[in-house]
Amino acid sequence: MRVWRLILLVFALLLSDVIAYAQNRNNLIAAKDEFILLIDLRSSKAEMDTILKRAGMPGLSASKIQKGDFYHIYKEGWKMIQNNGKVVQFKKPITINHDNAPSKPFLITTDLIKTEGIPGYPGEVSYGVNKFSRVTVDELPSGITRFFLPGNTDARKVMLSGSFNTWSLTKTSMLKTDSGWISDVKLQPGIYAYKFIVNGRWMSDKYNLLHEEDGYNGTNSIYYRYNYTFQLAGYNNAKKVSVAGSFNKWNANEIPLVKNGKSWRAEIYLNDGMFTYRFMVDGNWITDPANTKKVTDEKGVATSVINLGETINFSLKGYADAKKVCVAGSFNGWKPNQLFLKRVNNEWVLPVTMAAGNYQYKFIADNKWITDPSNNCYAVSDGITNSFISVGANHTFRLKGYNNAQTVRIAGDFNNWDPEQYTMGRKGDEWVISMRFKPGKHHYKYIVDGNWIIDPGNKLWEPNQQGTNNSIIWVDK
């Protein structure tokens, strides 16, 4: 009976208009010559039971598989081809005649974007603007995001799956209406990938012109949940108004403003960070008259400023005789005359709103560049030592002891194993540095006065090509 279930499963996959393919977590992929089974060991028992049932193995124990016991999967003829500790990949040949099997679909799209995320889970972007030939995703007044699939009224079941529900096959059912299917989802501002599942068939949103590759010769539809509105009052006689800034490389043709009563408006998604911008009104650039925050570039041109994200309070004590003190760093392109500190009692202070990330910086007191005397974590760029700060850090390295060490540094695959770049700071009985990483596995070592060592406080390690070991951290988000 199990053989017949497998044969029926093969026919169901191969005779559909579009082959069901993976979204990075639990998935079963039908290729031309084989099945590929992906099992995410972090998924729930219910999610794992679903994928095992789809693969023709409904009786297997999900709890054993979660513990790394794959004996019964091997017994069913599957061969492991990859195991990274979180997602396990198996393959199994398709043994029935499939000469007429359809090839995997390629969707020609208007805009194919590329983020630094993993397939199915887009990475962070500076900004985003949706593009629809017909609006199928919209924000309701309640703050809920509504997804709409027009037509397909003969379908028995339609699901919505995406990065917002870990590409679940069961979590988000769509409700049938007289003109299609709808589903309401609560989303935070950001970028999301999604697809519809119609009678078991995965399909992109054909009305959404933004797509990203899914890693399996197909694409996912991309949607931005907006969080910022540009608004320009007046200019009633203007024919064309747009906004551009540092977030979109000053492309004045990308984001038009729409007349709304007595003002012009445009909504977009903006990631955290400091951005400069201006409006273009009938070919003429102007700053935002409603925004008092402005900076002047090296050519003396004023631009309006947006600050989104975490506020970092820069402070420099002393320098009572200084006439001006600035801060500059990788967060503002090292522009020295943009961010001016104010004198308060015995120190210079300035709050700056910054996006999550790792940054280098220095103070400039009367044109003299200096590192931050209150920060003993450093980073080197082009042979120059700068102060180092991490905004939204998701891991802190701590090395206890080594009281007599002169310098302790850290290197890993995140900086191409450069032994000079990052210097840790001494705090109490520890050497410490906090950093922000992309999700995934990262290798590293400490360098204590020139001597490479693994992290004695971390039990996770792997051998390397030099015959020694590297310490490992896993970053989930």
Automatic annotation (TrEMBL):
It comes from the Bacteria. Coiled coil: none annotated. Residues 153-213, 236-309, 321-394, 403-476 form the AMP-activated protein kinase glycogen-binding domain. Pfam families: AMPK1_CBM. InterPro entries: AMPK1_CBM, CRP1_MDG1_kinase, Ig-like_fold, Ig_E-set. Belongs to the 5'-AMP-activated protein kinase beta subunit family. This is AMP-activated protein kinase glycogen-binding domain-containing protein. It comes from Mucilaginibacter gynuensis. The lineage of its organism: Bacteria, Pseudomonadati, Bacteroidota, Sphingobacteriia, Sphingobacteriales.
